[in-house]
Design brief:
Layout: H1 3-9, E1 44-52, H2 58-75, E2 83-91, E3 100-106, H3 109-117, H4 131-141, E4 150-158, H5 172-181, E5 184-191, H6 195-207, E6 212-215, H7 229-241, E7 245-246, H8 249-263, H9 267-280, E8 296-297, H10 315-318, H11 322-357, H12 365-377
Parallel strand pairs: 1-2, 1-4, 4-5, 5-6
Antiparallel strand pairs: 2-3, 7-8
Length: 384
């Protein structure tokens, strides 16, 4: 990647739609960045979700897509604020569209959310699925942190037992033992009421120092509505509208499509994402929001607008005289920063509202995941 593009894509200040910003106003300023604990000094939570994506899991997958930002926001509320890396393994069985589909651990939770959105429930039918290969790949092929201040955990979620009869090296119990030998806790979530699945999932959790829970087939996830959701979603959409994406025509189209998808998020998900960014962004490296290959976030370095090729500029800048382009970008940035401050304030109020006014379910997928995260995170010094 050319140096210019690498520099431009490394900065997020104008693309993380809900990342907080410092406002230039007479009010007391937040602590300067120097007072924030360095990313490398903070504990890390490495979390891999291993999800059965066969047809019977449609309800849970749909719910997980809606609640993933809520789970992330709750994880980010730990003290000290942890680095959070998430990976995904979707699994089915031999003869289906795929046996596994894997996405490595990453701090790019926007990318992780996009990957989760790509999962659809389909296939299955013979009962058992290839649980062992999915668990084994999660243990052996993910880039788990080697830092001692890391809590490493897997959440195995499914409603069917394993095809351990394949005898192909992917035995579930063997890989549960391999997991805990590497310091990876395996938590299991049985969906539905299959007895064979319960017996297996209980064994796997016991072998890998994790917890076993059983939930309804749909996961029991309910979106929490608050009085602040609509305003947060509106502000996020305004921030997206002020994001200037450059690059090739195709890269611009793909980048703007990503921004459109963010604007189309439900009010609840948009607010949960804002809450996560408010907590996590100040304590760690920002995450690229527009990830389309070859795209350039022009807001990231306004002065560079003067050296980009005409065809690499979005139409709104190409239609301006050259002398006015940089000033236009800087104006968009200033307006974005003001909007981000408002998002940060509303996200904090939303968190307080949920804490004080909303009864928390204890039998839903997201609540069960968070309870297990709390137990394992304590080993890395993260308290909730």
């Amino acid at each position: 990647m050319p140096p210019l593009r690498r520099v431009l894509r490394a900065v997020l200040l104008s693309t993380a739609l809900a990342a907080p910003a410092l406002a230039a106003d007479p009010q007391p300023a937040p602590p300067p960045p120097a007072q924030v604990q360095p990313a490398e000094a903070r504990p890390t939570l490495d979390v891999v979700f291993v999800l059965d994506t066969t047809g019977s899991m449609g309800g849970l997958i749909a719910g997980a897509k809606e609640k993933i930002w809520s789970i992330a926001s709750r994880m980010a509320s730990g003290k000290p604020t942890p680095r959070i890396r998430v990976g995904l393994v979707g699994y089915r069985d031999r003869g289906d569209g795929y046996v596994t589909r894997r996405f490595d651990l990453s701090e790019d939770l926007d990318g992780m959310s996009a990957n989760l959105q790509g999962f659809e429930a389909a296939g299955g039918g013979d009962g058992p699925e290839h649980v062992g290969q999915a668990l084994g790949e999660a243990v052996s092929l993910m880039s788990w942190s080697q830092d001692k201040k890391t809590a490493k955990m897997i959440f195995l979620v499914g409603d069917a037992p394993a095809h351990d009869d394949y005898k192909d090296g992917w035995n579930t119990r063997t890989w549960a033992k391999n997991a805990i030998a590497k310091g990876i806790v395996v938590n299991t979530v049985r969906c539905g009421a299959d007895g064979n699945t319960e017996a297996l999932f209980r064994d796997l959790a016991l072998l890998a120092d994790g917890s076993y829970v059983s939930i309804g087939q749909s996961g029991g996830m309910v979106a929490v509505a608050t009085p602040f959701d609509r305003d947060i979603a509106k502000l996020n959409a305004e921030i997206a509208d002020k994001t200037l994406v450059g690059g090739s025509r195709l890269a611009q189209e793909e980048g703007n499509a990503e921004l459109s998808a963010l604007k189309a998020m439900s009010a609840s998900s948009s607010s949960d994402r804002a809450a996560y960014k408010t907590k996590a962004a100040p304590a760690g490296p920002a995450t690229e929001m527009v990830r389309a290959r070859g795209s350039i976030t022009i807001n990231a370095a306004p002065e560079r607008v003067n050296v980009l090729k005409e065809e690499e500029l979005p139409d709104v800048l190409r239609n301006l005289p050259k002398a006015e382009r940089e000033a236009y970008v800087r104006k968009q940035n200033a307006e974005q920063e003001a909007l981000k401050v408002k998002v940060t304030e509303l996200a904090k109020k939303r968190d307080a509202f949920i804490k004080d006014s909303v009864a928390t379910r204890k039998d839903s997928f997201d609540d069960q995941v968070f309870e297990s995260v709390k137990r394992t995170a304590a080993k890395a010094g993260v308290a909730y």
